[in-house]
Design a protein that fits this description.
This protein is mainly α. The protein folds into two domains: 54 residues, no CATH class; 217 residues, MetI-like fold. The protein has 13 helices and no strands. The protein is globular.
């Protein structure tokens, strides 16, 4: 019996290793190409003949606006992560702990509306932002507004986590004279670190990887591009063969912050997902 278990485990581990190699191989190729020092276009061999940092040096040189694009992306992602997390926490706490007329209808309506992809509203949002002066040169605050405005609709995972916290704690705090705001900030939030980190990571990732809305809102203004839009325009409007390795180097730099965040916060991320799916 023990021998059979060992064989089963060995097969499972072997399959997982093969899957991991297949999954990581494109990233490995991307890293190798970013350090290629010879011709900057696409080639038919994997390992560079000459390793060099010139592609990364180009990204930080005066010939490239990569730093500006990177900071644009970081600014949008940080603001969205902060404001969206605060709004989701407040909405989720209200729906989890308070009972009011129309509560169930409100939650169901938001769930139904959340099933429709956001890009269906692009034309309406563009003209609305244009009236407010938040397109092209004002695209950065416009993109922040788009991401934050409907953030309350993403309440369901966070609310599910709050539902797992005993309501008796709230009742005891109310008897001691605590207000709803004090219960939220001094009791519920300290007990909800996993779901808060999960919410912040998801909120950070959406604008960090956004291309559709960012290209639509910032269209025509190079200084307002985020990294995804800028690099796509980069390879379209320049010599793709000459910019391929620089594109790879930019992709590596874009992946670094997200990779570090997930490696450092993976434990809380998993706890947030599993905890938030227990109750609805």
């Amino acid at each position: 019996m023990a021998g059979s278990n060992r064989r089963s485990n060995a097969i499972i581990y072997a399959v997982l290793i093969v899957i991991s190699i297949i999954w990581l191989f494109p990233f490995f190729c991307l890293i190798l190409q970013s350090f290629r020092g010879e011709y900057g276009g696409m080639v038919n061999y994997l390992f560079p003949k000459e390793f060099s940092l010139k592609n990364y040096q180009f990204l930080f040189s005066n010939s490239s606006k990569f730093v500006r694009w990177y900071l644009n992306t970081l600014t949008i992602a940080v603001f969205v992560a902060v404001f969206q997390t605060i709004i989701i926490i407040c909405v989720s706490y209200a729906l989890s702990r308070m009972r009011f007329k129309g509560r169930r209808l409100l939650m169901n309506s938001w769930l139904v509306l959340g099933m429709f992809p956001g890009f269906l509203t692009m034309i309406c949002l563009y003209f609305l932002l244009k009236l407010l002066g938040l397109t092209q040169a004002g695209a950065i605050p416009g993109l922040i507004l788009i991401s934050v405005a409907s953030s309350g609709m993403g309440y369901y995972i966070c609310k599910g986590y709050f539902d797992t916290i005993p309501k008796s704690l709230d009742e005891a705090a109310i008897i001691d004279g605590a207000s709803r705001a004090q219960i939220l900030w001094k009791m519920t939030i300290p007990l909800s670190k996993p779901i808060i980190i999960y919410t912040a990571l998801v909120a950070f990732m959406a604008p960090w990887c956004d291309y559709i809305f960012a290209s639509y809102v910032a269209f025509g203004n190079e200084d307002s591009y985020n990294v995804a839009v800028a690099m796509q325009r980069w390879v379209w409007t320049n010599d793709y063969q000459g910019y391929f390795t620089r594109f790879c180097a930019g992709g590596i730099l874009v992946a670094i912050p997200v990779t570090i965040l997930f490696m450092c916060l993976q434990k809380y991320y998993v706890e947030g997902i599993t905890g938030g799916s227990v109750k609805g």
